[in-house]
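My current task is to audit a protein record that another person submitted. Please read both lines and tell me whether the C-alpha cells look consistent with the sequence. Do not assume that whoever made the record got everything right. I have pasted the whole thing underneath without changing anything:

===
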Amino acid sequence: MRRAAYPLISVSVASAFAMTALPAAYATPSATAVIAEVYGGGGNSGATLTRDFVELGNAGSAAYDLAGYSVQYLPGSPSASSQWQVTALSGSVAPGGRFLVAESQGSGGTTALPTPDATGTIAMSATTGTLALVSGTTALTCKTAADCAADSRIVDLVGYGTAVVREGSGPVTGASNTASVARAGALADTDDNAADLTAGTPSPVNSAGQNPGSGDGDGGGGDDPTQPGTVRIHDIQGTTRKSPLAGQTVAKVPGIVTGVRTTGSKGYWIQDPTPDADPRTSEGVFVYTGSATPTVAVGDSVLVSGKVSEYYPSSTSQSVTELDGPTATVLSGGNALPAPVALDAASVPDAYIPTADGGSIESLALQPTVYAQDFYESLEGMRTTFADARVVGASDAYGELWVTVKPDENPTTRGGTLYSSYDQPNTGRIEVMSLDTTSAFPAADVGDELSGTTTGPLDYSTYGGYNVQATQLGTLVAGGLKREVTRRQKGDELAVATYNVENLDALDDQEKFDRLAEGVAVNLNSPDIVALEEIQDDNGATDDGTVTSEATLKRFTDAIRAAGGPRYSWRYIAPENDQDGGEPGGNIRQVFLFNPKRVSFTDRSGGDATTGTSVVKTRKGARLTYSPGRIDPTSDAWDDSRKPLVGEFVFQGQTVFVVANHFVSKGGDQPLHGRYQPPARSSETQRAAQATEVNTFVKSLLAADKDAKAVVLGDLNDYEFSQTVTGMTDGGVLTPLITTLPAAERYTYVYDGNSQTLDHILTSPAVTRFDYDVVHINAEFADQASDHDPQIVRIDVSKCRKH
C-alpha cells in the first residue's frame, strides 16, 4: 500500500478539517488568462447554437500569448481508460478581450457561433466535464483534483456538473443543452469553480467582439452565402512562413481559382484579385480536398471556408499554408485570372535564405527583396510566370524538371548551373511540374529551353522546395546536348575509371546492361581498370542471404564485350549480408574490372568482409598483405556503409595501387530549402571518419614507398569543397583531380538543378603526368543509364616519379 503523503490524524474533526485544507485549488489564481465560459450542449436537442465552445478571457493589462498552449477536456467521471482531449491554440488574447474556441458540432441547433479564433473537434458533455487551459499541447495525465493541482502546466481549470476534477470545494452546476457556465464580466478567479462561475444562457464572443447576432458567424457574411467573410488570403498567409491564423477556422474567404490538381494531394489554388500593399503577404493559398477530386474550375470566383493549417511535407522542410476540410460556394465562372508575378533575374534576390544559427526561420519576418527563398515564400500559392528559361535539371520519372530564371548564374559549359559553395546556393533554380494530366510531360535534357511562357501557382514540396505548378507550360526546344566520348588511352598510358552503375544486378533488364556496357566500351573507350560502385548481389534486393555477384558481373562483362570492349576480368570481396547499406538485401559493393591483355592483377588471398588488408614494406617497394582487400572493415567508420576495396595491379612492369570507394550517402541531411538554417549536414561526420581511414591507409602506403603510385577513386558522396575531400587530402598525400578542371566543368551529378561533384579520382604525389576527364553521359539527360557520370584518368606511367 502506498504511504500517505500527509501525517495521519486520528480525530474525526481534525480529519474533516484536513479534507478542506488540502490544495484542491490551484496554487495561484490567475490574474490574466482564464476560462471565461464553457458550453457542451451545442447541436443537442433543444439547443440554439450548433456547436460546443470554450471561451477564454484576459483580465490582464497586456496581451496574453497563446502560442504553444491548448485547451483540454476530460469527462466528468473519468475511468482508467479516459484521456484528456487536446485542441492546440495560437494567437493571443487581447487585454480585457475574449478568445473563442469552437469544438464539436452537433446535428441540432439553428445558430452558428461567431467566427471562432481556434477550432477543435472535442465532443463535450452538456452536463458534466472538466476544461483546462494548458501551457503546452501534450495531453495531461492527471485524473484527480489534487493531482491536477500539482501540474504546473495548468493555467486555469473549470469543472462543471459533477466533475471529479475541479477547482475548490465543488464544480459549478447548472450546465445543460441550453445553458453554459460562465464567469462574471470582471473575470474574477478565486480558484473555486462553484463560486466563480454560474449557469446561464450561452453567450460566445470571439476576439473581434462578435457574438452570434453581430458577426459573420461560422458561415461569415451573416446569413448571405454570397457575401465574403472578414478574412482575406493575405490575412491567412501573414508576414512570416507560418500563418497567424493556423488552427483557426475561417469563413467564406474570397478568391479566383487559378489552378486545379486532380492527382496526388488533390486540391486547388485560389488567389485574391485585390491584394494588400504588403509585399510580404501572399495573395494565394492552396485548398486541400484530400482524396476528393475538386469540383471547381480555373476562373471560378469562390468563397471558401475551412481550417487554416500548416502542412509539412517532411520533418525538416518548410510548411505549406493551406485550407483543410473546405466547403466552397462558386459565385461565377470564367473570370479573368490575377496577373502572374514574373520570376526573373531582376526580381529574384541574389542572397539565398536567412539564417537562425541552425534553428527554425519560420518566425522571422519575410524579406522578399533580400532573400530568394523569402521572395518565393511571399508568393506561395500565387500565379507566377517565367519565359524562355534554360533547363538545368533533366526531366525525371515523376514529371518534374528544373530551370533557371537567372541565365548568368554559375553556368556550366553544357548548360547547367554549378553548385560551388555551401555559403551561397544558386537562387535562380526553380522546379517545374505540370497540372495538365492530358499531355505527356516533356523529356528535357540540361541545356534545353522551355521557350515561351510557363505560368502557374507557386507551390512547395519536400523534393526541391519551391516549384511552379504549370497551368501553361512553355514549348521544349532541344539544346542539342550530346553524350561525350573520351579519347582512347595511348599504349604507355594506364587508363583507370570509376562508374556508379546504380544498383545493377542480374535481375535487371538487358537494356540496362547494354546501356551501361556502352558507357564503358564506347564513351569511356575501354579503360584498363574500371572501379564500379553499386554492383548488387545476384538476386538484387531479395533479402535471403545471397552475397555473390558472379551472375551480375558475367552479364555485364558479356555486354561490354558485345559493345566492342575487351573481355574484362573482375575482382571483389563479397560483403556480409545487410552490412554495407543500400537497398536491404541488395548488398552493394565495389568491383574492379580489368583488361588482362593490358594490366595484371596481383592476387594475394586472405582478405574477406571482415579481414582488412595492410601495407608491407619490401626492398622493391610497398605491397599489400591481401589483394583484393578491404581497409579496416571493422572500424565504426564503415557501419552500414561500403568498405573500400584495394587492389594491387601491374602495368608495364610497374605496380599501381587502386582504392575503390563508396562513402555513406547524404541521407538524413537537412535540405538547402528547409526551415532549419543553416541546414545540418549530419552525414558528414561519418564521411569525415571514412576519409580519415582512407587517408591513413594511403599514408601507410607512402611510408613504405614514398613513390608509390596510388589512384583513389569512387563515389565519395561529397563535394570538392567539403571536409570529406579535405580529409582525404590531409598531409598532401592525395590530389583531387576534379580541381584541375576549369570550374565550369567540375560536376558528375545533377540534383535539384545543381550540377555538383560527388564522384572523384585522387592520385598520390608520384602520379605527375596524367590526363583527367569527367565523361558526361548520364546526369544531364532525361534518359539515363545511371544517375552518375563516370570519369577517367590516363596516367603516363613512364613519366611517374620512381623510387
